[in-house]
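Researcher: We plan to redesign the surface later, but first we want a full-length starting point. Tokens attached.
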């Protein structure tokens, strides 16, 4: 846990104080200190504030509350992450005895000194009514370990002493804020407030005192917990666990957890998996006492929109029979969904809230012996779910180890928070077309391959770019991870080596859970007349273009079938299939064979909802700042035969198509996107990307 540093604080003052004021600069520093500790705050949870003047456009100084914006990450939020509110307006609201949620949010918007800003924290009124300049609030794991037990208040009092207030769980908003303010009026000298099943507040006019009091109370809670632990949990060596088995079951789990839609072109909403398989997690979920609380309610209501109210548990998984395992997973998901739908129905009847129901499938699935399977609609969401699951497991572990009985939030309180407008707003935002989908492309380091990788990343897809290990793949990884982060993953793979292909797909399943899109792009060329063609050279070309395509499709299709959620396959063919070129026999024949494999795949896979199509580009010389490997091989011979330099050869191919256009790598990438985004109900087709070549039109 990083502690206070005057040297670091001065850097924040130097960076922000001139424009935003010293108070807010200090607030940003201490907020980030708290936010960077995962035992205190996770992914947008918690909130902080400072009371300081706001300068209007006319130069007037207005007393203001700067409170963290809803959903902003405390670990990274700068001054722009804090919403300034008119403090006098907020203070007057305390005179009210009642204030509904809609009216409260309306008043918060009225109080905003920058009306076009984002929403303030839902606990803004509590921050305003605590009469100190600096207020810190977190969902510290140690505090939740104490509060989430059947004797939680007693535990908190023993651990933290009498100078801390303890308040029951109250739904965030006006009434919680009122309770906090009234309690502080009655006990003005307390150092902090513990909210049951919620978290910790500390406050002071000195930011360092508030911050260090927060850490002191959390440290006390942690020490108390360690002193009360009377049992230990064993660990399992994750290095000895069966990666191959996990990779086989992950697509089954991923398919079972996918949401169902009513769109015939996109019948499923895929999810990304993050699988927790570390020694600690495997040991916990294998402990005989752990199931009884793993299915209990979530730690705190703030987790709900990411985790759902409970985790799902697979009892005695049939790991030696994958067909039986698949049935078992689907039954577990079905039972959980039925339970969730009943919970949703009761909640709607009780509250009258008509928000559409979330996908009723579990977000977290616990499979003893294998791991904890966490989902999200994007990789970012899956990572958040996994981090929250990890925190939940550790808190529940410590409660058991202390000899306690876990006590969660009552169901009616869970529903009120899960389907509450401010929480739902954190999930709002239009998804990119390929969000939640995972694509694998061979030959990714080439001109066409790298352009396809970029296009799919831009459309929200997770892209695994495979190619031979080396500088070209490393360069692609550096460029695309710099732009798209974890949504691009470079994976060395040799498509001519079946073990390399199989292990590559295994690694993808372990990392993301499966595959949705297969792009068969790897291919090499060779220029030689038939009567001069050496058989070994032909076999070398055939091994990549035909066998490589076959092996890639074979192992990718196994995953698509295991998921049972459809999928898309695009093979990068060539205009040389219908219209071969002289001295291009090895390339044209082997690409024609690969083309036929894709056409056969379209016949075999249609019953599984998997669409297979070909793209037939011509004369793509470069893309993504790199030359095409094919033209590096055949370009010199073609230039020599026609008496042209490199620029002249490009002009020759541009002028021979009907549109007189240079075909680029990004044109091919757009063709891939057209197919995988399913803009038409098409399979078994070949789309020419050649500017129009009359001798290549028959398809």
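Model: Full-length starting sequence:
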């Amino acid at each position: 846990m990083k502690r206070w540093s005057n040297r670091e604080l001065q850097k924040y003052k130097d960076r922000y104080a001139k424009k935003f004021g010293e108070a807010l600069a200090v607030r940003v520093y201490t907020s980030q200190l708290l936010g960077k500790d995962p035992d205190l705050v996770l992914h947008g949870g918690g909130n902080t504030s400072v009371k300081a003047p706001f300068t209007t456009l006319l130069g007037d100084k207005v007393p203001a509350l700067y409170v963290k914006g809803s959903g902003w990450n405390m670990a990274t939020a700068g001054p722009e992450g804090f919403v300034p509110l008119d403090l006098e307006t907020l203070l007057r609201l305390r005179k009210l005895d009642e204030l509904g949620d809609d009216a409260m949010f309306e008043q918060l918007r009225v109080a905003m000194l920058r009306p076009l800003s984002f929403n303030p924290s839902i606990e803004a009124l509590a921050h305003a009514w605590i009469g100190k300049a600096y207020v810190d609030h977190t969902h510290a794991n140690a505090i939740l370990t104490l509060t989430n037990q059947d004797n939680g208040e007693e535990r908190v009092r023993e651990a933290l002493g009498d100078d801390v207030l303890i308040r029951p769980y109250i739904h965030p908003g006006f009434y919680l804020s009122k309770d906090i303010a009234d309690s502080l009026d009655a006990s003005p000298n307390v150092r902090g407030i513990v909210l049951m099943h919620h978290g910790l507040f500390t406050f002071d006019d000195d930011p360092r005192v508030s911050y260090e009091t927060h850490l002191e109370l959390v440290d006390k809670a942690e020490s108390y917990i360690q002193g009360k632990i009377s049992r230990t949990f064993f660990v399992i060596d994750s290095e000895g666990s069966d990666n191959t088995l996990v990779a086989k079951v992950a697509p089954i789990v991923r398919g079972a957890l996918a949401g169902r839609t009513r769109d015939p072109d996109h019948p499923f909403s895929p999810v990304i998996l993050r699988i927790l398989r570390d020694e600690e997690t495997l040991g916990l979920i294998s402990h005989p006492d752990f199931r009884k609380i793993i299915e209990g309610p979530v730690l705190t209501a703030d987790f709900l929109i990411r985790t759902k109210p409970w985790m799902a548990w697979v009892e005695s998984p049939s790991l030696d029979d994958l067909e039986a395992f698949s049935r078992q997973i689907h039954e577990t998901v079905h039972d959980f969904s039925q339970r969730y739908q009943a919970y949703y129905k009761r909640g709607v009847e009780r509250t009258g809230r008509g928000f559409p129901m979330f996908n009723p499938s579990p977000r977290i699935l616990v499979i003893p012996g294998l791991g904890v399977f966490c989902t999200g609609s994007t990789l970012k969401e899956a990572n958040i779910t996994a981090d929250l699951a990890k925190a939940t497991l550790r808190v529940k572990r410590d409660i058991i180890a202390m000899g306690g009985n876990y006590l969660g939030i009552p169901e009616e309180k869970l529903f009120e928070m899960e389907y509450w407008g401010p929480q739902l707003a954190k999930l709002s935002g239009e998804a990119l077309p390929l969000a939640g989908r995972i694509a694998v492309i061979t030959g990714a380091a080439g001109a066409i391959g790298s352009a396809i990788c970029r296009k799919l990343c831009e459309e929200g897809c997770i892209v695994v770019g495979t190619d031979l290990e080396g500088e070209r793949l490393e360069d692609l990884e550096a460029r695309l991870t710099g732009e798209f982060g974890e949504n691009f993953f470079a994976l060395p793979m040799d498509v001519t080596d079946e073990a390399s292909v199989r292990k590559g797909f295994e690694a993808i399943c372990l990392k993301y859970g499966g595959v949705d899109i297969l792009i068969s792009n790897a291919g090499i060329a060779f220029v030689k007349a038939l009567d001069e063609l050496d058989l070994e050279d032909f076999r070398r070309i055939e091994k990549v273009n035909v066998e490589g395509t076959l092996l890639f499709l074979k192992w990718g299709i196994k995953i698509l079938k295991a998921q049972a959620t459809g999928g898309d396959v695009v093979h990068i063919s060539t205009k040389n299939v219908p219209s071969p070129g002289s001295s291009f026999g090895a390339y044209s024949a082997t690409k024609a064979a690969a083309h036929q494999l894709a056409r056969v795949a379209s016949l075999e896979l249609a019953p599984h909802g998997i669409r297979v199509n070909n793209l037939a580009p011509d004369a793509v010389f470069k893309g993504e700042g790199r030359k095409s490997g094919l033209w590096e091989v055949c370009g010199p011979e073609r230039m020599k035969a026609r008496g042209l330099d490199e620029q002249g050869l490009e002009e020759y191919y541009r002028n021979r198509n009907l549109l007189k256009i240079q075909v680029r790598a990004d044109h091919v990438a757009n063709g891939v996107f057209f197919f995988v985004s399913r803009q038409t109900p098409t399979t078994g087709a070949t789309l020419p990307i050649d500017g129009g070549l009359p001798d290549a039109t028959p398809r």
